[in-house]
Amino acid sequence: MIINGIQMKRESKSFTDALYAVLTAAGLFHGPTFMLSGLSGMAFKFSVHEKLFPFSVTAYGQWGKEHGPAIDNLGILTGHSGGRTRHDSFAVYQQAAIEDVKHSLDRGLACVYWIPEFGVIHGYDEDDRVFYVQDGSSIETRYVLYDNFGLNITPFWYCQYIGDKVDIPLRDAVLESLRLALEDWETPYKTLPDQSIASGRLAYSFLIRALQQGEFDSSGAVYILESYLTARSEITSYLQEVESVLPGLNEVHSIYAELEEMVRGQLNVALPLTNSNRALVHQQLPSLCTTLQQALELEERAMQQLRIISGRYPDRKRSIIPRWGAHTAR
C-alpha cells in the first residue's frame, strides 16, 4: 500500500517539512511551506545546546506538547505515539503504533515519523512487514521493518497521525501563532530538568557564549545557524503575507526583515559555501557574535510589539481555567 503524490523535501525544520508533505498530499493544506511554518508557530521555535550539538535544532521541547498546539492551530485533528525505547512497555506501544500507522495509511493519510530527524511514512508492505519512509534529503525510499519500528540511534521514538480538518478564520490562526511565538520566546528551558538546552530568548545567549568561548561542535554550529536563518526567512515571508490581518504586524514584519538581511549578510561571510558545504570561518566569530547580539535586540523589539498586538484581543485559551484546574492529572 503506497500513497502516491508524496515527496518530502528538506526546506525548513524536518518536522515542518514532513508535516507539509503529509498535509499537502491529503489536500489539507494549500500554500507555501513558510505559511505552514508560520501558522503552526514552528518557525519561531529556537533551541540551542550549550555545546552547539546538531540535535539542538530538534530539541525544542517535549514533542507531543510542542506539535499538538502547532497542528491544532491549523484546525487539524492529530494524535501521536512515542516515548523512550528503554521503557518496559515499549514493545506493547510499538505494536499498537504499527497498527495505527497502517490504519492511517489505509485511509490515505501518511504519518510523520522520527527516523531521526523527522520523515514521512507513506506506505507499507504487509508481506515483507516493512514501512516505506522518506527523509527529505533525497528521492530515495527507505525501509523500516515492523520489528524495528521506533528503534533508532536516539533513545526516543515518535510518530504523528492526522485526521479531519475544520476551518479556522485566518485572523484567529495568525493571532494564536503569535501567542505560540511569545510562549517559545519567554520559556528558557523546554526540556527540564535538563538545563543544557535553552529556548527562545535564552537560546541566543547559549549560542553567543559558545561561539565566544570556542568550545563547541563545529558541524552543530553550522546546522544551528543555517536553521536559524531559514526560520527567520520564513518568519519574514509569513509576516509579509499576513501583515494586513492584524494592525501592527507591518511593524513586526519590518523588524524581522531587517534582522534577516543583517544576519544573512554576516553568515555569507562567516559561513562561506565551499565544495557544496559550509564551514565556520573562525576569524569571523567576533563579528558574528556582535551580529547575533544585535539580532537578539531586534527580536526582543519584535516580541514586545507582538505582546501589544496580542493584548488587544481576548485570549480564552490562556485566561479561562478549566473546571478542574489548570494542572489536572491526566
Keywords:
330 residues; 6-stranded antiparallel beta sheet; two-stranded antiparallel sheet; 10 helices; globular
Question: Could you characterize what this model shows?
Answer:
It is a single chain. The protein is of the alpha+beta class and 330 residues long. The protein is built from ten helices and ten strands. It has a six-stranded antiparallel beta sheet, sandwiched between helices. Strands 1-8 form a two-stranded antiparallel sheet. A hairpin with a 4-residue loop joins β4 and β5. α2 crosses α7 and α8 runs antiparallel to α9. It starts with 13 loop residues before the first helix and ends in an 11-residue tail after the last helix.
Strand content: 15-25%
Care to count the β-strands? 10
Shape: globular
Strands in their spatial order, largest beta sheet: 2-7-3-4-5-6
Percent helix: 40-55%
Mean pLDDT across the residues is 94
Which structural category fits the helices and strands?
alpha+beta
Uncertain stretches: none
Radius of gyration: 20 Å
SSE series: HHEHEHEEEEEHEHHHEEHH
List the helices and strands and how they pair.
Layout: H1 14-25, H2 33-39, E1 47-49, H3 63-72, E2 76-84, H4 90-106, E3 111-114, E4 118-125, E5 130-134, E6 142-145, E7 156-165, H5 170-186, E8 197-199, H6 200-213, H7 218-242, H8 249-270, E9 273-274, E10 277-278, H9 285-311, H10 316-319
Antiparallel strand pairs: 1-8, 2-7, 3-4, 3-7, 4-5, 5-6, 9-10
Helix pairs in contact: 2-7, 5-9, 6-9, 7-8, 8-9
